[in-house]
Every structure is written in structure tokens, then in C-alpha cells.
Amino acid sequence: MQNRKKDIIQFLSILVIIVLINIIGSLVHHRFDLTKEGRYSLSDASKELLSTLDDYIYVEVYLEGDFPAGIERLSLETRQILSEFKSQNNLIQYTFINPTESRDDKTRNEIIKQLYEKGLNPTSLQVKDGDSYSEKIIVPGAIVKYGAKEIAVQLLKNQIAGSTDQNLEQSIRELEYEFTNAIKQLKTPLKPRIAFLTGHGELEGTEIEDLTNTLAQQYSIDKIDLREFEIDSLGEPDLGKKLRDLKLKKLLLIAKPQTTFQNLDKYFIDQYVMSGGKVIWMLDATNADMDSLSNKGSFLAYPLRDLNLSDQLFKYGVRLNSDLVEDISSSKIPIPVSFVNDVPKWELLPWRYFLVSIPTSSHPITSNLNAVKLNFAGSIDTVKTNTKINKTVLLHTSPYTKLANTPYEVSLQKALDPPVQEEFNKGSRALAVLLEGTFESIFKNRINPLSKKLPFNESSKATRMLVISDGDIAQNEVSRGAALPLGFDKYEKRQYGNKDFILNSIDYLLEEDALINVRTRELKMRLLDVQKINRERNFWQILNLVIPVLLIILFGLIKQHNRKKKYAHEK
């Protein structure tokens, strides 16, 4: 009787403790992240942003349904990160939707079309059904809404240099960044003003349509022509107003200029930099393009007409070489390899002038970035003109490169000829260099009549600029009059990281370091060893089958032994 009373008291005590724990848990909410790298914890930047919300954020995620294991994991991780967002602020509301649940093909296709028009790209999956495979269309993305505004977020990445598991890990790693960035864009009332330079034959219109449309979500996009002026009260060009207008821009993009920069142009840009302005230079030093190949199958690449920027860039710390880089790491183009009854047979062959740069730097701009494609790029050298400038190579070639000094004949025949290994011995060459620090004006210690009419600073505030040896890096391809996504290769059907590289660069130059650090958080990949699994599959299957049975038998024997011992003692 006494033992029974003791058992009841013990049971009631445990019950009371459980009830108290549940009551405390309902009042005090806390999550414990036991992973070494804080995988399930939000960054300080995300927490700070979420704490400033004053209205509801609605997130529609299109990852509901029956998926393969990898996509199912992405769906679970998305739910987890949004749950963390909601735990920080209850104004975050989310729902998961299956866009393909309708059995009516017309309705299903219309929904997918609407999501595509909003910016979500559908993806085709091969799903195994018994011994056969079927194709399934999914839309791995989300729409984030804030008031009357909304932004599309693509959740599934497709990195060229990574395996399927690595791409999945990359997608999961960037979930926090994608949602944080979307909320930040929706919340920002005044967008920073950035401008594309015009007046020197730069890229414009449909050539940069995809980039400008993407930038317009986060920035106010302007065009500025340094050759156009308003007239002042004396009937003369108002140079001062032009310089003031330029200084209002947070960042200046110079994309593939074709004609010479006059001293006045250079003065405007120089004094813009001296005032702390940021510049992305995307320059071709060589006249080479694919249109020249369509007629004769070859063309003569020669140094581009002098842009008159060499001395300015040299002063800032880099030299753009008028050479062509050939690289073993390259994309492919269709080449006629033979003719049957005068009908060409086409094959995709490596075109070594279309460089594929795989970023290896841990810099916030390039960390975890997809490969970047550059067309007919030259090499960049850094120069020691100013010790106050820090130079960082962000993009580079592979170690197996060849430098062709111009003039140089470029022919389709080179795609048919296998590379001679001994010729590709120039090592890794810089293609994009980040410059940070205090710059000196190119007009310092020069007799310059412009300094009498316009403000002049001989040195800059601490600022940043990026120099890229390819103007085409910002140019999207056009198909049937419509702009394709920037970095999309229509021949290989691959998406390169050109757009992400430029977007990250702009964020970094504008000192959005906290946001970039969210994107580049290092989460360790704990992937299973597939070969080891296949090799030891039978062992672990038998072990998992036998051990539980043996434990149950052992437990039964011990229980039986104790019962016999107890009753024997009582007798």
C-alpha cells in the first residue's frame, strides 16, 4: 500500500512539472539553435529589419504538393525560415500554395503563365514513377506583398559549377537573404538614384532591359548624357548644373562606351568620384563581336578607337590591356562541323573567347556566386600609383589562358581546332577589379581651365569603384524582340551569374554590407556520401533490422528473469 501511494505521488509530481513547463512555454517563446554555424538563427541585419515593420507582410510560397526529396527539403526549409521571421514579428504572414493542383490543363497553364509574368520561372522536373519517368512542372518561388507593392522571389538556384545537392544547399543558404532583401525593397520609400551614362554609344534600350528592370525594383534608374546641357542666363551651357546633377546620383554605370571621352566628360566623372561617387566601368578595349563572324566566318579584332580613359583608369589604379583572352574555361556556340547535301550539321563546341569565370574569392560580392560569362574580354593589370587604394580581383580566368595581342584574326575554325596545351600558359588573369580607398584626381597638378569654372577637388573621400574588362557583361540577349534574362545563354540553355554579380557589386559599392553578409552566410554542407551509402547499404539495412529485434528479445529476457527472481524470493 505504501509503495502504491509513493507511485501515485511520483506520477502526480511528474504531471505537475509537465503542466508547468507547458504553461511557461506558452508564455515565454524561445528557440534553441544547436547547430555550430547558427543555421536556424536569423542574422542581426534581418532581425533589425523585421523590428521596423509597421504593417503586414504577406508571403505566398508556391512549394506545396508532392515533390521529390530535394524540392521537399527546400519547401520545409522555406517554411522554417518564414517561421523564424514570424517569431521575430507577427506581422509576417505566409501561406503555401500548389499552383498546379488544378486538373484542368488550361487553368493550370494560365496560373503558371501569370506567375511567370510576375517574375517566377517554372522548372521542369523528372519524377520517377515505378520504372518510368514523368515530367512535372513546378514554380519554386514566392510572391512577397507589402501594401499595394509586391516582389517575386526565385527560391531554387541553378549554379553551373555545382552538383544538384550543392545547388539545393545554395538555394537553402540564400533563403534568408532573398526574403530579407525583398522586404527591404518593399519597405524603402525613397529609392537610391543610380544612372547609366549615355552619349558615347553605351548599351541602352533592349540591350540592358533585363538589368534595368531588375534594378528598378530597388533603385531609381536615370540616364545622364554628359554632352547635353541646360542654358544659363548668359546663354552658355550650364556646366555647374550638370556636375551638380551628376553628384546627386549614388552610382554611375558606364556600360560599353564606343566613342572617345572628351576632357570635359572625364572632368565630370573625375569630380564625381572625388565627391565620393561610385562607378562601375564595363569597358571593351578591343573591337570584337559575334556579328562580324556571321558574314565571313572570321574577322580582325583590333584595339578599339581610343576611349581616352587609359590615363584616368591608370591614375585610379588599373590598366586595361588591348588584348583578347582565350580560356579553356569557356561556354559553347553552334559551329557547322560538316555539310551533307550543302546542309550544315551543327554542334555546340567550346568558344574560347567566351570566358566562363568561376569566382573563388570569399569577398561578399562573389561569395557563393554562380559562374560569370564574359565575351571577348581583355586582361586587367593593377598598378601602384596610389598606396591608399586597395585592389581586389573579383573575377579572373582559369590558369589555362592564352593572350592574343591585337590586331588578331578571330575565326570559327579555331573552335574546330583542339587547343594546344603549351599555348595556354599565361596563368590566371584579372577580369574585374574592385578599387577601394582615397583616389587622386587625374587633373591634380595639371593646368586645367575647367577648374576655374567648376568646383575642383584634388582627392576624394573614401569611395569605391569596379572596373570590368568586358562591356557585354551587362548586355542581355534578345530573342524575337524580347529581352532574355541577363546571363542566360540561349545555346547552352544555361543561366550564368552576370546579373547577380552586378547586383551584388552595386549593393556593395553603395555600402549595403549588412544585406550582402546575409546572403553570404556560410552554412556547412552536410551531404551524405553517396558512394559510401551504396557500398554499405546492406550492412546498415541488416543492422537496423536486427538490432531492434535483439534489444526487444533482450529486454524480454531481463524482464522474465527479474519476475522469476522476485517470485522466488517471495516464496
Characterise the protein shown here.
The protein is of the alpha+beta class and 571 residues long. The protein folds into 3 domains: 24-185, 3-Layer(aba) Sandwich (Glutaredoxin), CATH 3.40.30; 193-285 and 309-319 and 357-400 and 426-509, Rossmann fold (3-Layer(aba) Sandwich); 529-556, no CATH class. It contains 16 helices and 27 strands. The chain has a 7-stranded mixed beta sheet, with helices on both faces. A 4-stranded mixed beta sheet has the order 2-1-5-6, with helices on one face. It has a 3-stranded antiparallel beta sheet with strand order 11-12-21. Helix 3 packs parallel to helix 5 and helix 8 (239-247) crosses helix 9. The longest helix is centred in the C-terminal third of the chain and has 41 residues, at 530-570. The two termini are 20 Å apart. The mean pLDDT is 84.
**What is the percentage of strand-forming residues?**
25-35%
First-residue to last-residue Cα separation: 20 Å
The strand order across the widest sheet is 8-7-9-10-23-22-19
Structural class label? alpha+beta
CATH class descriptor of the largest domain: Alpha Beta
Q: Identify the quaternary structure here.
A: single chain
Total domains, how many?
3
Tell me how many strands there are: 27
Main beta sheet: strand number and arrangement? Answer: 7 strands, mixed
Rough shape? globular
Count of helix runs? 16
What's the topology here?
Layout: H1 2-27, H2 44-51, E1 57-61, H3 69-88, E2 92-96, H4 105-118, E3 123-129, E4 132-138, E5 141-146, E6 149-154, H5 164-173, H6 175-187, E7 193-198, H7 209-215, E8 220-225, H8 239-247, E9 251-255, H9 263-274, E10 278-282, E11 286-287, H10 293-296, E12 298-303, H11 310-316, E13 318-320, E14 323-327, E15 330-340, E16 343-357, E17 372-375, E18 380-382, E19 389-396, E20 401-405, E21 408-411, H12 413-416, E22 430-437, H13 450-453, E23 463-468, E24 478-479, E25 482-483, E26 488-489, E27 494-495, H14 498-509, H15 513-519, H16 530-570
Helix pairs in contact: 3-5, 6-15, 8-9
